[in-house]
Amino acid sequence: MRLGLVELRLLPDDFWTLTPAELMLMLDVETTSTRMSRGTFSDLAARFPDKNKD
User: Fold this and answer.
1) Computed over its alpha carbons, how large is the radius of gyration of the chain?
2) 52 is a domain residue
3) DSSP H helices in the chain
4) In total, how many domains does the chain have?
């Protein structure tokens, strides 16, 4: 937050409407994220199932 508001001199409304990807791009931060595999997703879905709102 400090980098966005102080270093980039963004207004608070502008800062809060940025996506993380946009902020990282503005800060010139390299990201090396990998995509989640279907197997990893299935494991997470099994461990943390959605709860029904009955």
Assistant:
1) 17
2) no
3) 2, 12-17, 20-26, 38-47
4) 1
3-state secondary structure of 49: coil
| pLDDT at site 11 | 95
Do the beta carbons of residue 16 and residue 2 sit within 8 Å? no
pLDDT by position in tens, the chain (length 54): 898 999 999 999 999 999 988 998 999 887 776 788 999 999 999 999 988 766
| Residue 53 falls inside a structural domain | no
- In terms of residue numbers, what domain contains 22? 2-47
Does the pTM exceed 0.85? Answer: no
**DSSP code for 28:** T
